[in-house]
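Late entry, written up from scratch paper. The run itself happened at the end of the previous shift, but nothing got recorded in the book at the time, so transcribing now.
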Amino acid sequence: MSLDRRALLRHAARLGAMTLIPGPLLGLARCSVRRDDAAPDVRHAGVGEGGYGDLVPSRECPELALPRDFRVVRLSVSGERMSDGVATPGAFDGMAAFPLPNGHVRLVRNHEIFTPRLLGDAAKAYDAIGGGGTTSLEVRVGGAGAVEKVRDFVSLGGTVFNCAGGPTPWRTWLSCEETVDGQRAGWQRPHGYVFEVPADAEVQAEARPLPAMGRFVHEAVAVDPATGVVYLTEDMTVDPARDRLGAGFYRFVPRVPAQLSEGGRLQALGVEGRARYQTYHRQHVGAALPAVWVDVPDPDPADAETDVSAVLRQAVAAGAAVFKRLEGCWYGFGRVFFTAASGGDAGRGQVWQYRPRGGDRGELTLIFQSPAPGLSHGPDKPDNITVSPRGTGLLICEDNGERVHLRGITPEGAVFDFARNLADTREFAGVCFSPDGETLFVNIQGTVRASATYAIGGPWRRGAL
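Output as recorded:
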């Protein structure tokens, strides 16, 4: 590893230590009380308790409802011509924000596109007919809520179904393909990989897969800045009739930190002493489970296209735990937070916390579980997730196909509404804060209708975000 990369990782680790506050988010384990005769209680945070109050339609963007005194700017809409002359692709999904040397913000945004229509420059594309990839936006954030797009362009092309991913401490975005299709499905190359996009790039990057990080139905990633270990989620359900085992929670231990292309070990999380543990039912909020990591012998198996569970099958044989539809994943304050969209006894979602304990050991804790669908029970079908830069709460995108919200969870475990899509039932995605923590960026995903990226600002310190 170069001296620059070593220094970057040390700097990221120091930042994590500097911002660590006593017991951040630890109260999440108390978010519900398990009773044998009733569903867990879900507590709601009002004004002064971490919440921001009632949501009202935005004057700037009437398709959104936000708390009073919050402002929003619509930055980007699919179909618009970008700075490089390419029409902005749709299906906006995962996203992250990076500081630029000129004081602006760089957004790198996924496009969950599954159509055989090349995005960007064919010479730099992975698959000549892959319609997915990423676009990058340069955004100027001024005073009094002034946010404007400066330029935008294709930054990754020729990939497929780029769902989520995550930022790295060495200033790249990891974009993940949520499919294992390949030549048998009509593509020119195999898919199901992670791709790395430099945040500082001003033109489209050459698309190179990272097969050592696994070929499976990827969703999101999160990186521990102290170690460079990458955590990964898999968006698969349990379906015995179709021989689908479910989802794994993985980590990639790079051979050289910050240089993922140099290879490394792919491992899956297991629960110590309880091989093939089923996390998606009969769980207790707040109960800490001792976690271990088991090796995946072949992260890029030859039968991955015909067996969607080929990677997890190896992990389960070694004792790995099974989850149900893992989605968002975000690192914050020494922990990795991730969501299971269909987990829990009601099948309406779970939020998990993993805390590394050194080596192959850790601690897995369920910090929220939705007991039923509907507004009164907290995040319903949780998807993308982010951690408040102040370490005072979580913000979660819903993808329930009904009334879709951004939902927050306070350190005491109470839930609150932060935003609602008033126009339709399309999901929120790509939620992330600006480097200074003062602007929230988020997407509304559209496949048939237009997608949009928004910038939201306001009195964050009034509540838990």
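Residues 84 and 153 are 5 Å apart (CA to CA).
(Scratch paper discarded after transcription.)
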